[in-house]
Design brief:
4-stranded antiparallel sheet, single chain, flat, 4 helices, Kazal-like domain-containing protein, alpha+beta, 37% helix
Length: 82
């Protein structure tokens, strides 16, 4: 999965269309565009996927993240992509 994210990030063309992403731990984050999300996943070994943009606008501002408290503290280790 990480290798695939990095390959997509290498060839992706930025379109500057803001998007929302959520990872397997429930952390929501806004990204500049889908390429930005793939680059972030590659660089940080995360597993964000696209969500409807309106879901992020109510919880976080651009470039910020919001973690649902129900997932717990150890979740950061569990959602790292190997």
């Amino acid at each position: 999965m990480l290798k695939e994210e990095c390959q997509i990030a290498d060839i992706c063309r930025h379109d500057q269309v803001p998007m929302c992403g959520i990872d397997s731990c429930g952390e929501m984050r806004t990204f500049i565009d889908t390429c930005d999300m793939h680059e972030f996943n590659c660089d940080t070994r995360k597993d964000f996927v696209q969500k409807p943009v309106h879901e992020c606008w109510v919880t976080c501002k651009r470039g910020r993240s919001f973690k649902k408290p129900a997932y717990g503290d150890g979740c950061d280790l569990e959602n790292s992509v190997i």
